[in-house]
From TrEMBL:
<dbReference type="InterPro" id="IPR018062">
    <property type="entry name" value="HTH_AraC-typ_CS"/>
</dbReference>
<dbReference type="GO" id="GO:0003700">
    <property type="term" value="F:DNA-binding transcription factor activity"/>
</dbReference>
<protein>
    <submittedName>
        <fullName>YesN/AraC family two-component response regulator</fullName>
    </submittedName>
</protein>
<dbReference type="Pfam" id="PF12833">
    <property type="entry name" value="HTH_18"/>
</dbReference>
<dbReference type="Pfam" id="PF10114">
    <property type="entry name" value="PocR"/>
</dbReference>
<feature type="domain" description="HTH araC/xylS-type">
    <location>
        <begin position="242"/>
        <end position="340"/>
    </location>
</feature>
<dbReference type="InterPro" id="IPR018060">
    <property type="entry name" value="HTH_AraC"/>
</dbReference>
<dbReference type="InterPro" id="IPR020449">
    <property type="entry name" value="Tscrpt_reg_AraC-type_HTH"/>
</dbReference>
<keyword id="KW-0805">Transcription regulation</keyword>
<keyword id="KW-0238">DNA-binding</keyword>
<dbReference type="GO" id="GO:0043565">
    <property type="term" value="F:sequence-specific DNA binding"/>
</dbReference>
<dbReference type="InterPro" id="IPR018771">
    <property type="entry name" value="PocR_dom"/>
</dbReference>
<keyword id="KW-0804">Transcription</keyword>
<dbReference type="InterPro" id="IPR009057">
    <property type="entry name" value="Homeodomain-like_sf"/>
</dbReference>
Length: 343
């Protein structure tokens, strides 16, 4: 099957992944790097801290970093779960394995942070230590000021971020597998001059499964790219409406209906409309449209995602309607807005 020939370059669209990786690094304050199964980088280093940048530029110290990357990835692969550890300089790093059919093909490495609660370091393994203390002492004078600038996080915060990265990687892998399974299905159908059912070729899969995966992936991407402030949600004074605001901000990729939100709040649509207008100063449809256009502007400014895909990521029924709505609020089309913003 096609899945037998997967490599990390086939699973990840590297151009898109690097942009997402940059956004994740900015949002989490972690440095992020993707490596293949040998520990060799396949992306640039997103958000690399000055300390680690200097260490990795040093030909005598770089091999230790690469060994940590390789060993961390393998340890994560063994447990099939994120692996949090201390590198050769006692800095916290995370390895999130990328595994297909029990085959380890690479890892997303994150970290370059110090623990804000040093006592919790005892819970982590130092994955590699050098016996050449003379070398480390000689380098320390140049590195110590950069070490002090490393961001700090609690172990619990690091564990939360590692689980998020693991979930994201799993979505990407599942999406890539299912796209390739669909290609395989049509290749077989073409050879047979017939169109068989997907379930006959790939037991356990259905078009509904694939659509659900696409929907979930869209939501992950929307969250990763859109640095939405939650000012509207925070300022919600009516506790009855809190579930509705939570849903709006966590389902950016959906075409949310008034009925759905009214049901979440356990009130009638008409009463929901009345409370919502009182809370926000505008009706439901205008509020949602304005918010989505605000998010669309961020995507246009910060990424190269095509307009048609932005339309999908933000839950518009079709690109033409998205363009029309964008022009209504911004006075220009998304393509023109992006061109002038970039210039």
């Amino acid at each position: 099957m096609i899945r037998e020939h997967f490599s990390i370059h086939k699973v990840f669209d590297m151009e898109k992944w690097e942009k997402l990786q940059d956004s994740l690094a900015a949002a989490t304050k972690l440095a992020i790097l993707t490596v293949d199964y040998k520990g060799i980088p396949v992306t640039s280093h997103s958000g690399c801290q000055s300390f680690c940048h200097k260490v990795r530029q040093d030909s005598e110290l770089l091999p230790f970093c690469q060994k940590c990357d390789s060993r961390g990835g393998l340890e994560a692969a063994r447990s099939n779960a994120p692996y949090i550890y201390l590198c050769h300089y006692n800095i916290v790093d995370i390895a999130v394995p990328i595994i297909i059919d029990d085959k380890y093909i690479g890892a997303v490495m994150a970290g370059q942070v110090r623990l804000s609660d040093p006592a919790s370091a005892s819970e982590l393994e130092q994955i590699l230590s050098s016996k050449n203390q003379k070398l480390y002492s000689a380098k320390w004078e140049e590195l110590k000021d950069h070490y002090a600038d490393l961001p700090t996080m609690t172990l619990k915060e690091i564990q939360t971020v590692s689980n998020m990265l693991s979930l994201l990687c799993n979505y990407i892998v599942e999406e890539a597998m299912n796209k390739n399974l669909v290609v395989e299905m049509f290749d077989k159908a073409s050879a047979a001059h017939d169109v068989p059912r997907l379930s006959d070729i790939v037991p356990g899969y259905s078009l509904k499964n694939i659509e659900n995966l696409k929907k979930e992936m869209s939501n992950v991407l929307a969250h990763a790219y859109v640095n939405a402030t939650r000012e509207e949600e925070v300022s919600c004074r009516n506790p009855v409406l809190k579930p509705a605001f939570d849903y709006i901000f966590t389902h950016k990729n959906e075409a949310i209906s008034l009925q759905t939100l009214a049901d979440l709040c356990h009130i009638s649509p008409s009463y929901f409309s009345k409370l919502f207008a009182k809370e926000t100063g505008e009706n439901f449809s205008n509020y949602i449209a304005r918010l989505k256009i605000k998010w669309a502007k961020q995507l246009l400014e910060e990424t190269q995602i095509p307009v048609s895909e932005i339309s999908t990521e933000l839950g518009f029924n079709e690109p033409g309607y998205f363009i029309k709505t964008f022009k209504k609020y911004e006075g220009t089309t998304p393509a023109v807005y992006r061109r002038y913003y970039k210039d």
